[in-house]
Specification:
The complex is a heterodimer of chains A (220) and B (262). Chain A has 8 helices and no strands. By secondary structure, chain A is mostly helical. In chain A, helix 1 crosses helix 8 and helix 5 (119-127) runs antiparallel to helix 6 (132-162). Chain B has 262 residues and is an alpha/beta fold. Chain B has a domain at 109-173. Helix content of chain B is 37%, strand content 26%. Chain B has helices at 50-57, 88-96, 113-123, 129-142, 158-170, 188-203, 215-221, 239-245, 249-260, and strands spanning 4-17, 22-35, 39-43, 65-70, 73-74, 98-101, 176-180, 207-211, 224-229, 232-237. The chains are: A mainly alpha (220), B alpha/beta (262). Chain A binds chain B through residues 118, 120-121, 123-130, 134, 138-139, 142-143, 146, 218-220, and chain B through 58-60, 92, 95-96, 98-100, 102, 104, 106-110, 119-120, 123-125, 152-154, 165, 168-169, 172.
Chain lengths: 220, 262
C-alpha cells in the first residue's frame, strides 16, 4: 500500500495541478465578470436587464457538464456552419465554461450584497458630492465585499469539487487521472487518495475564509 | 433680494400612492426665504412634508413645480413649466453649497471617523490629504471627538455618531446646512449634546435649516420658525410670534398635543 502511494502521488499531484489551474483561472475570470453581470442585472434598461437575467437563468438552470460540452463542441459546429474554422482547445473550453457558469452564481451573490446596502449610504455620498463611480468603489463595494464573503466561500468550495467535471471533454485533471489509476490497480484506492486531495484543499480554503471573515469584522 | 442665501418659491411635490392608485400632493405650495446667518426651524406633525421639503431642496428628491435658488444660483430654469432642472454643473455647484445631516447619521461604517470626515474633501474638493486631516481634526476637536478619530462608527454612541456626521458635513464648507430630525434616532439623554453643537454653530452665524420635533430647541436656537401641516406653510415668523402670539388654530392644536405628549 505504501509503495502504491509512492507511485500514485506524483501522478495524482500532476492532475491536481490541472485542477488548481482550472480553479484559479475560473476565479480570476468569474469574479470580475460576476460583478459586471450583477451591475448589468440592476440596470434600469430592460434591453440590458432582460438578456442578463436570461443568461443567469440558463447558467443556473442547466448542468455545468452540459455547458462544458456545449462550449467545446458547440463552438466548433457553430463556426463550421458560419463558414469559419474556429474551435476551442479542451482546456480553454473548460475555463470559458466554468467562468461563465460561476459568474452567474457570483453575480446573484453580489447583486444581493449590493442591494442590501442601505439607501442612506448612497444619499450621504451624493450629498458630499461624490461621483457615481466614487460612491460605488469607495463606499458601496467595500461594504459589499464583507457581506458576500460567506456566500462566496460556499461557491469557491463547490468549485474545487466541480473541477472534476472537466474530464467530460477529456481534460486530465485530478479525478480523471485517479479513475485511470483505478483501472490500473483494480482498486478504488486511487479515488480515495484523490478524495483526500479535494478535502485538504477545501480545508485550507475554509480556514482562509474564516480568517477573512474575522479580518473583515473590524466594523459592523 | 440679492442677499438671500436660500429662496424657495411655490415648491410643489407629488408622490404616486400605489395603495390609493393616484398622485398624492405632499408639498402644495411652499415659499420662504433665508438670509445669511438665519436659523430656520421647521415644525409640524409627521407626514406634513417637512422631510420631503428638505429632500427637494437638497436634490435628493426632484420637485414637480416651483423654484429654488441657493446662493443666487437657480436649481430649475426660471418660469419653466413643466419644470426643467438647471445644467448638471450648476446642480453640482449648488449641491456643494448645501450640506445635510441625516436622522440616521448614515456614516460610512467601513471607514474610521477621520476617514469619514476627510473622504469627500480629498476626493471632491481635491484637498491635500495632509491638510484635509488637519481640518478634520480641528472639526472633530470642536465636536469633542478628537480622541475618537481612529475609531469606527460602530464603536461610538448615537450622539457621537451624529456629531461625526455634523463634522463630515462641515468639512465640505457648506453655505447652508440642513438637519433632518437630527435627534430623532437618539436616546433622549443624548439629544442634548447634538442640540449644544447646533447652538454653537448658530452662534457662529452658520445658516441652518432644522426639521425637528424638539419644540423647546426649535424656539431657542432659531430666529425663524415655519409651521407646516398637510403640505402647506400654515404659519411663519419669529419664535416669539409662532410659539406665543399666533392665534392660528392648527398651530395651537399641534402645540397643545405636543405639550401633552411631553
Amino acid at each position: 500500500m505504501i509503495s502504491d502511494l509512492q507511485n500514485l502521488l506524483p501522478i495524482l499531484a500532476q492532475g491536481f495541478g490541472t485542477t488548481l489551474a482550472i480553479f484559479g483561472l475560473t476565479l480570476l475570470f468569474s469574479i470580475p465578470l460576476g460583478l459586471l453581470v450583477a451591475v448589468l442585472k440592476m440596470s434600469k434598461y430592460k434591453v440590458i436587464r432582460y438578456p442578463v437575467a436570461f443568461y443567469i437563468s440558463v447558467m443556473r438552470g442547466t448542468p455545468l457538464l452540459l455547458q462544458i460540452v456545449a462550449i467545446y463542441f458547440g463552438s466548433y459546429y457553430l463556426s463550421q456552419s458560419a463558414g469559419a474554422d474556429f474551435s476551442f482547445d479542451r482546456f480553454p473550453a473548460v475555463i470559458v465554461a466554468f467562468s461563465v457558469n460561476y459568474a452567474a452564481y457570483f453575480a446573484e451573490i453580489f447583486r444581493g450584497g449590493i442591494e442590501s446596502i442601505p439607501k442612506g449610504q448612497y444619499e450621504a455620498a451624493t450629498m458630499l458630492g461624490l461621483s457615481k463611480s466614487q460612491t460605488f468603489f469607495r463606499i458601496i463595494l467595500p461594504q459589499v465585499l464583507k457581506r458576500v464573503v460567506p456566500a462566496s466561500a460556499n461557491e469557491v468550495i463547490t468549485l474545487v469539487k466541480d473541477t472534476s467535471l472537466a474530464q467530460v471533454i477529456a481534460v486530465t485533471e485530478l479525478f480523471a487521472l485517479a479513475k485511470k489509476q483505478q483501472a490500473v490497480y483494480a482498486s478504488i484506492f486511487p479515488l480515495f487518495v484523490a478524495g483526500i486531495f479535494y478535502y485538504v484543499a477545501n480545508l485550507i480554503l475554509s480556514v482562509f475564509f474564516s480568517y477573512l471573515e474575522r479580518k473583515l469584522n473590524y466594523y459592523r | 433680494m440679492e442677499d438671500h442665501i436660500l429662496e424657495v418659491k411655490h415648491l410643489k411635490k407629488s408622490f404616486y400612492d400605489s395603495k390609493k392608485g393616484r398622485e398624492i400632493q405632499v408639498l402644495k405650495d411652499i415659499s420662504f426665504n433665508m438670509k445669511c446667518g438665519d436659523v430656520l426651524s421647521i415644525i409640524g406633525p409627521s407626514g406634513s412634508g417637512k422631510s420631503t421639503l428638505l429632500r427637494c431642496i437638497t436634490q435628493l428628491e426632484t420637485m414637480d413645480g416651483g423654484e429654488v435658488r441657493v446662493c443666487n444660483k437657480n436649481m430649475v430654469v426660471p418660469g419653466s413649466n413643466p419644470i426643467r432642472y438647471a445644467p448638471k454643473a450648476d446642480l453640482a455647484e449648488i449641491r456643494l453649497s448645501t450640506g445635510l445631516v441625516f436622522q440616521n447619521f448614515n456614516l460610512f461604517p467601513h471607514l474610521t471617523v477621520l476617514q469619514n470626515v476627510t473622504l469627500a474633501p480629498i476626493r471632491v474638493l481635491k484637498l491635500e490629504p495632509h491638510s484635509a486631516r488637519i481640518r478634520a481634526m480641528r472639526l472633530l476637536k470642536r465636536m469633542g471627538l478628537e480622541s475618537k478619530a481612529r475609531a469606527y462608527p460602530c464603536e461610538l454612541s448615537g450622539g457621537q455618531q451624529q456629531r461625526v456626521s455634523i463634522a463630515r458635513a462641515l468639512a465640505m464648507n457648506p453655505k447652508v446646512l440642513f438637519f433632518d430630525e437630527p435627534t430623532s434616532a437618539l436616546d433622549p439623554e443624548l439629544t442634548g449634546e447634538i442640540l449644544k453643537v447646533i447652538k454653537s454653530l448658530a452662534e457662529e452665524e452658520m445658516t441652518m435649516v432644522i426639521v425637528t420635533h424638539e419644540m423647546a430647541f426649535a424656539r431657542d436656537v432659531a430666529n425663524q420658525v415655519l409651521f407646516m401641516d398637510d403640505g402647506v406653510v400654515v404659519e411663519k415668523g419669529t419664535p416669539e410670534y409662532v410659539f406665543g402670539q399666533s392665534q392660528n388654530e392648527r398651530l395651537q392644536s399641534f402645540l397643545s398635543r405636543f405639550s401633552q405628549n411631553g
